[in-house]
Amino acid sequence: MDNTHSSDSYKKNRGFTMIELLVVIGIIGLLSTTLVPKLRKELAKGKVAKVQHKLGLIRSKLSIDSNFSEEFPDLVNDDNLRNKFDIHSTEAFSSENGSYGETDRVVGIRDNQGGWFYNRTKGEIYANLPNGAYTYDTVYEIWKGEGFVTLEDLQNLEDVGNTVAMGVDENGKYINNPSFESLPRTVNTWSLFNEDEIEHWQTTATDGQIEVWNDGFQGVNAVEGDYFLELNANQVASLYQDIVTIPGTTLVWSVSHRGRTGTDTAALSVGGSGGDLDLQETMTTGNDGWVTYTQEYVVPEGQTVTRFSLDSIDSASSSLSVGNLIDNFTVSVKLDE
Questions:
Q1: Environment class of residue 285 by beta-carbon count within 10 Å: exposed (0-12), middle (13-18) or buried (19+)?
Q2: Domains and CATH numbers, the chain
């Protein structure tokens, strides 16, 4: 009997062995860990080169135009100037799903939604992407670009709704009555104020009362200035500020906390003024000294008013009107270097 045909058929129909499959899988895995990242990086470089080329053309034309004009053109509001200054579509970035598109929009305040960010006062233009970035993969980020905000941007903030825009100092720190020094009358020991008497501060207390202490009262010295406050005035409540902010900026907040009769606990939460707030810090501090807490907070897209809330959580005293001393609450914006 001739077994040649059956042997050849067996060879043709035989599938991969387990070892061969493992070898193939290993090769595919090796390629995915070496070639794919390199390809992604090269594609990202291509995006950077494309946008940088466009930026170069626009900036050159703006520079030439400045020699013949007394002010820089209004690229944000005058669409007819787009072609004159070679403002064409560039990659957009969606913070929701990380997808790219094309847009030629020009904005005066960076919002990370693609196109171009233009500072007319200085005649400067940048890519309007998160942190100036051209890829959403932080591992393969290859160009950080320009910062978010300048001191001039902060000084030009306007009121939003019922929220009055605060001034800022030369370091980007909000002038927000941080140590409760702006008062209608002098406090010698302690005193209760209506919330409308203390600039920039509001309370959730049903009686609207805020309790302020003088430096040295009951042996407690203020961290900054002459005054500080007790978060628990007549009841457990929250003290908060609403601040006009620029979406995409990084805020650095700092606050000093101290227990009154023992260990007290308070929390600091941040978010939009009309929605839920995110817990940033739970502060548990004894009464033997002040402790300063600080963190950074990135203002999300569309949030032009940001609320900072100091919330009483627990007190060493059984009294609702005793506990949680607060001083020197500051908020600063990280500026361009």
A1: buried
A2: 13-147 (no CATH), 190-333 (2.60.120.260)
